[in-house]
Amino acid sequence: MFVKFVFQGVMNTNNASNPFKDYDVVFIPYCTGDLHFGSKDMTYIDPTTGSSVVVKHKGYDNVLSVLKYIQTEYPQVQNVFVTGQSAGGYGTLLNYPIVRETISGLNSSAKMNMLIDASNGIVPNGFFSNLSTQWGADSNLPTWVAGIAANYLTVGNPSIQDFFTKVSTHYNGSGDKTGQYTATFDGNQRFFYKVMHIINSAPPYSDEKTTDPYDSSKTYSFLFGDSDGSSIPDGTTASTDGSSCGWTQQAVTSMNGISAGTTNYSYYIAPGDVHTITTSEDMYKLDSGGTNFVTWLTTLSTGTKPGNAKCTNNGGNCAN
């Protein structure tokens, strides 16, 4: 009940246009730093004090606990829509197979569909091995999905594009429809992409702050920049150094790749740089490329594949 007061958008049961206004909501909070997919306690060193800090990366274990609750409370479940935003979007995708199998075990004819919101997974090479070494996620992989073996995270070139394509294809036969949303210049995703590149360069850690050149009342990390992505350099579409246009081009390329690789997936690419949409009232008035977001989402929620939607603008779009 608490989340229905804190969030709006898909949580707003008073909006007649909300396709989920009559749904029960099962909300999994995020506090494990592992995209809801870890099963490991990991010791880190605090760079400011040198002391050891244990982080319980038990996101996947939390998901399993919630699934046990669903098995008890919803034994006749008929229709499920799984969604999450930002880190929760990755949790939605990575855990979709185990959620799907659990729901099918309760009711083999249950309908299930998915949307991940602002979770494109554009990361430097080698990132996915962290899911194995830091989070202990190998044993949580859905190895019943074709092409996802127990060593998926550490062998070859794992990616969100590849994982999404394989999972969507696997559940296509069940009638599942999968969707993905992003803003073209999502500021927070661009920020984290740049931070990953900075961390990989292993600079000396600093907690020094710098003043925003456009707003003297605002400060942010001198090392990592502003979390809204405003301090990230533009770069070009070919950039692979964490710059803005490089992130955007890779995000759009990934979504086009999934769309080409499986027939039950659709994307919605909005204009602007705002991170996440599904818990904002702005989702009801959002249009992109002539398509209203809620109309698109409602179609997806019913198990019908909506068309892809992509913003068009008068210049400024550095991705194709």
TrEMBL record:
<protein>
    <submittedName>
        <fullName>Pectinacetylesterase domain protein</fullName>
    </submittedName>
</protein>
<dbReference type="Pfam" id="PF03283">
    <property type="entry name" value="PAE"/>
</dbReference>
<dbReference type="GO" id="GO:0016787">
    <property type="term" value="F:hydrolase activity"/>
</dbReference>
<dbReference type="InterPro" id="IPR004963">
    <property type="entry name" value="PAE/NOTUM"/>
</dbReference>
